[in-house]
Amino acid sequence: MSGSFIDDADALSPGHTADPSADRAAVNLVVIDSDETSRHDLVSQAGAEVVGFATIADLVPYLDGEIVVLVLGPTCIVDGSLPAIEQVLRDHSELGAILVAEDITTSLLTQALRAGVKDVIAAPIDQEQLAESIVRATPTKVVVAKDAATASASTDQVFEADGELGKVITVFSTKGGAGKSVIAANLAVVLADRSEKPVCLVDADLQFGDIAVMLKLSPQHTVVDAVNSLDRLDETLIQSLLVTHESSGLLILPAPLEPAFADQIGAPEVTQIIELLRRFCSHVVVDTPAYFNDVVLGLIEMSDEVLLVAGMDIPNIKNVKIGLQTLRLLNTPMEKLRLVLNRSNSKVMLDVGEVERNLQVTADALIPSDIVVPQAVNRGVPVVQSAPRSGVTKAIEQLADLFSPQPSPTAKSKKRRK
Ligand SMILES: Nc1ncnc2c1ncn2[C@@H]1O[C@H](COP(=O)(O)OP(=O)(O)OP(=O)(O)O)[C@@H](O)[C@H]1O
Ligand SMILES: [Mg+2]
């Protein structure tokens, strides 16, 4: 098969819109498949103006920094082209990729995701599914160039360290579903709004982290990329791996896209990354899984503050009690622990005083239960933004007061004008 640019030889740039529909109007699509029939089929299914390339190498000369989503045809998985595609995806953070496969198996999914593919869809492609997949695969804003070697330290998007280390706040619970991610994400958004310096949210729920989904982000990079470049990781490179939550300015280091990657990441790696982040951030908020593992223990040890989240039912209280005992056994200084009672107004048989007596700890924050929380989660918008006047928002703002004072109204408007 010739490696030439086949389907639209006069179109010099791959920057052609696949479909005039509003969703996809801004996304440039190209099809890659070395099998001519398969490529033609995909091009015609994906949209009249999509350009087809036989190989990824044929596409590279046309890349000009514009965001492009690659639709990889079924042949890519069998013709050995995946490593070359992986390399190009690594080198070009402006590219997103979707794989179209005849038969989706776990091993195919693993191979594809490891190569940097964001989504796998079944052939023949369905237009609606393709449109959704393109949204997922479209890279979000790239903060700076992907590689430190190519990143310019003079770019104004690189935040300088000023010698003062940011506070590390770990949000933990020994009970799944207690509200850790909701509290971590919203606290981080409030802190980002108040802080002059950057605030970073790290998703250390390495297997099942859902911060990216909760904030409707399609990350191009995750903590896996940071761990893979640990030997040369510096402030510029780590910043290039963070995703920006546009409406708040919060920086996010997402969890791996696949649970299997969690195995590659241990406490020393996570600690090293967070030590780097705190050099240029005022606060690093860390979300965690609902159990103790070496990463969580390392985080608790290095954190300035540990928020222990508990729900208002007996299993929650029982598990949090065990968690507290474990922390005491590990000689965790109790001064850095703060109890956050979530759904504190739940109409259950427990009241706050009873819970505090049982745990022998006074609650530092009471977050009410409110339908606005799941509504916000489902919309992918932080509740502090979608329901700014709700009791939940007020409670999270009070929680944030513990770590960062409320800015005066004038300071706030100044920050907005910047
Ligand atoms: N204060 C609240 N009021 C109403 N619903 C809430 C509240 N806090 C959390 N929830 C809901 O509870 C669910 C679990 O919340 P969240 O994902 O934050 O928990 P988690 O502790 O991170 O869970 P996991 O252990 O699975 O990571 C979410 O669907 C969220 O909408
Ligand atoms: Mg969670």
Summarize the structure in short:
The chain is 38% helix and 15% strand. The chain is α/β, with parallel strands linked by helices and 418 residues long.
Kindly provide the name of the CATH class of the largest domain: Alpha Beta
Question: Which radius of gyration do the C-alpha atoms yield?
Answer: 23 Å
CATH superfamily of the largest domain: P-loop containing nucleotide triphosphate hydrolases
Major beta sheet, strand line-up = 8-9-7-10-6-11-12-13
Provide the residue-averaged pLDDT.
83
Strand content: 15-25%
Individual helix count: 18
Describe the overall structure.
By secondary structure, this protein is α/β, with parallel strands linked by helices. The protein has two domains: 22-137, Response regulator (Rossmann fold, 3-Layer(aba) Sandwich); 167-417, P-loop containing nucleotide triphosphate hydrolases (Rossmann fold, 3-Layer(aba) Sandwich). Helices cover 38% and strands 15% of the residues. The protein has 18 helices and 13 strands. It has helices at residues 36-46, 56-59, 75-78, 82-91, 106-114, 127-137, 180-194, 211-214, 223-228, 235-241, 267-280, 294-302, 314-329, 352-359, 372-379, 383-386, 391-401, 409-417; strands at residues 28-32, 51-53, 68-72, 95-101, 119-122, 167-172, 199-203, 243-245, 250-253, 283-287, 305-310, 337-342, 363-367. The strands form two sheets. Strands 8-9-7-10-6-11-12-13 form an eight-stranded mixed β-sheet, sandwiched between helices. Strands 2-1-3-4-5 form a five-stranded parallel β-sheet, with helices on both faces. Helix 7 (180-194) packs across helix 17 and helix 11 (267-280) packs parallel to helix 12 (294-302). The chain is elongated and about 70 Å long. Mean pLDDT is 83; it is low at 1-25 and 141-156. Bound molecules: adenosine-5'-triphosphate and magnesium ion (MG). The site of magnesium ion has 5 residues, from helix 7.
